[in-house]
Amino acid sequence: MLEFLPPRLSAAVRHVNLNLLYELRIRADKPLRANLGGKFCYLRESGETERAASALLPTQEEIADTLFAASGYSVYSVAEQLKKGFLTGAAGERIGIAGSYVYEGGKVLSVHAVTSLCIRVPHAIEGCAEKIYARCLADKLRSLLLLAPPGQGKTTLLRDLSRIVCERRQLNVLVSDERGELSAGDLGETADVMCFADKLTAFTAGIRAMRPDLIVTDELLPEDYAAVERAIASGICVFASAHLVRVADVPKKLFDRYVVLSGLGSIGHICGADGNVVD
Q: Among residues 178, 7, 25, 176, which one has the least CA distance to residue 96?
C-alpha cells in the first residue's frame, strides 16, 4: 500500500496507523495533510502533528515522482486515466490530480503541471454492510443505490455488500470497476471484475458474456443510468453509488431501495422505489 510515495512522504506515512488512513492530501509547497479515522491532521517525517508549521512541505518534484511511480514508471500507459483526473495505484489507491488541463478539439489532451494529489486509501471492512443487507436484502435481492458526498464510505460498503451476496447467495456478481478502486479487497468468490471500462461497455459486455445475477458499480454519473436501466430491464439487480444527498436529485428512479448515508458508513434513512422512507 502506498509503495509509490517518495522517501520523505513514505517516512511520514510509516508512523501512522494505515488502518485509519483514509486520505492523503499532497500539495506543492503546502503542509502535508492526512485524514486519520475521519479527522484531518498534518504529517511530519516522524508522523502526526497538529501544527502546520511542523508539517512536511511536499515539493513539485515529489509530486511528479509520486505520479511516475504510481503509473508503473510509464505515464504514457495511464494517459487515459490521467485525462479523467485520476490514477489508480497498484493496491487500488485512487490518486486524484489537480493541475493544468490541455485541450485539443474540445477534448482533454493531457494534464500538465500537476500541483496537487488527493490519495484515497481503500479499506476492506468486513461486516460494515450488514445493516444495509439486513434492512434491504435479507428477504430478497433488490437493486439499491447508496447516496452520500465523497469520502463517506460508499465504495467500502459496496465492496462488503458484494462479498455478503457471494457468500450467502452464491450468485454470479459482476463488478464494474471503472477506476480500479472498487475491486481493491475481497468481493467474494463468485465475483467477476471488469476494470477500467466505462459502465456502458462493462454492462453491455458483462450481460452478453458473463451472465451476472447482480452488477455492482461505483459513482454513477447522469450518463450511466442508461446502462443501469438496461441491466434492470434484463432482470439483473444493480448495486451502485452516487455523489448525491437527496433521493429527489437522482436523475432516473430505477432502484428498489435508496440508502442515504449520514456519515462515514452510517445509514441516515432508506427510501423505497417511490422515494418514500421505509422501515
A: 25
Q: Model-level pTM?
A: 0.83
Confidence of residue 199 (pLDDT cuts 50, 70, 90): very high
Residue 48: in which H helix or E strand, if any? strand 47-49
7-120 has which fold?
A: Beta-Lactamase (3.30.450)
Distance CA 248, CA 244 (A): 9
pLDDT at 90: 87
Up-side HSE of residue 55: CA atoms within 13 Å toward CB? 24
Other CB atoms within 10 A of residue 32 CB: 24
Domain edges within the chain: 7-120, 130-278
**Tens digits of per-residue pLDDT, 17-36?**
988 899 999 999 999 999 99
Q: Residue 140: what residue type? A: K
Distance CA 55, CA 84 (A): 30
146-159 core/surface letters (b: 16 or more CB in 10 A; e: else): bbbeeebbbbbbbb
